[in-house]
């Protein structure tokens, strides 16, 4: 029987990681596309392409300067698109390998945790899509705390992403990213049950 694949997405700082952890606790297998992106930029060919696009100085004896890459890549939509064009093919290849492994396991569902689910075309691989959304100011504070960036940098990253309206229009489910972590577990269980029953 084919494993159910759920795409979990939403704008940065919305709370996807909390929902992902809750679904993993319920037995789902998780494919973390942020982790795959970190693996992708260790690929020698990918590194060369990034240097050509964003500057030779991104690489030092300490390796790739991810913070500087993010600063340059997220300064506007054009640079973000360039980053995607370089990294997405490598990420997708890594993801397909994960899917092959997980498809042989017994699990309620495979969750593709992908901030750029639509941009990468991964939405076409999913049976259902759920978007985690949260108020703008909460997202800004989370980004500042998580990444140690200024409010202006947080707003810059947010400005190149899809709007909440886009996610509402293109997702099968909307998940509340404004809940306390201890509240998400119960909601995640309800969500998973709803999805599984709908696929039965």
Descriptive notes:
The strands form two sheets. The chain has a five-stranded parallel sheet, with helices on both faces. The chain has a two-stranded antiparallel ribbon with strand order 3-4. Strand 3 and strand 4 form a beta hairpin. The relative contact order is 0.23. Helix 1 (16-25) packs across helix 9 (181-199), helix 2 crosses helix 5 (77-102) and helix 6 (136-147) packs across helix 7 (151-159). The model has no long low-confidence stretch (mean pLDDT 91). The chain has helices at residues 16-25, 33-40, 44-54, 66-73, 77-102, 136-147, 151-159, 164-170, 181-199, and strands at residues 5-9, 29-32, 59-60, 63-64, 110-113, 128-133, 173-176. It contains nine helices and seven strands. It has a single domain, classed as P-loop containing nucleotide triphosphate hydrolases (Rossmann fold, 3-Layer(aba) Sandwich). Helix content is 55%, strand content 14%. With 200 residues, it is α/β, with parallel strands linked by helices.
Termini separation comes to 12 Å
CATH architecture term: 3-Layer(aba) Sandwich
Overall mean confidence score, pLDDT: 91
Shape: globular
Low-confidence stretches: none
CATH class: Alpha Beta
As for the CATH topology, it is: Rossmann fold
Write down the domain tally: 1
Tell me the radius of gyration: 17 Å
Secondary-structure element string: EHEHHEEHHEEHHHEH
Number of helices: 9
**Percentage of β-strand residues:** 5-15%
| Number of E-type strands | 7
By helix and strand content, what is the structural category?
Answer: alpha/beta
Q: What characterizes the major β-sheet? A: 5 strands, parallel
Please bin the fraction of helical residues: 55-70%
**How do the strands line up in the largest sheet?**
2-5-1-6-7
- The CATH superfamily is P-loop containing nucleotide triphosphate hydrolases
């Amino acid at each position: 029987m084919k494993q159910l694949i759920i795409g979990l997405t939403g704008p940065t700082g919305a709370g996807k990681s909390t929902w992902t952890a809750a679904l993993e606790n319920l037995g789902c297998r998780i494919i973390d596309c942020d982790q795959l992106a970190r693996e992708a930029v260790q690929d020698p060919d990918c590194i060369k392409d990034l240097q050509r696009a964003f500057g030779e100085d991104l690489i030092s004896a300490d390796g790739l300067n991810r913070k500087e890459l993010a600063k340059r890549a997220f300064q506007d939509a054009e640079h973000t698109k360039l980053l995607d064009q370089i990294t997405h093919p490598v990420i997708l290849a890594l993801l397909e390998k994960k899917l092959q492994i997980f498809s042989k396991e017994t699990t309620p569902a495979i969750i593709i945790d992908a901030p750029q689910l639509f941009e990468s075309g991964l939405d076409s691989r999913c049976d259902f899509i759920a978007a985690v959304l949260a108020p703008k100011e909460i997202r800004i504070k989370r980004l500042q705390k998580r990444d140690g960036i200024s409010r202006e940098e947080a707003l810059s990253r947010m400005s190149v992403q899809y709007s909440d309206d886009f996610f509402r229009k293109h997702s099968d489910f909307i998940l509340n990213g404004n809940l306390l972590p201890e509240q998400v577990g119960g909601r995640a269980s309800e969500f998973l049950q709803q999805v599984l029953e709908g696929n039965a």
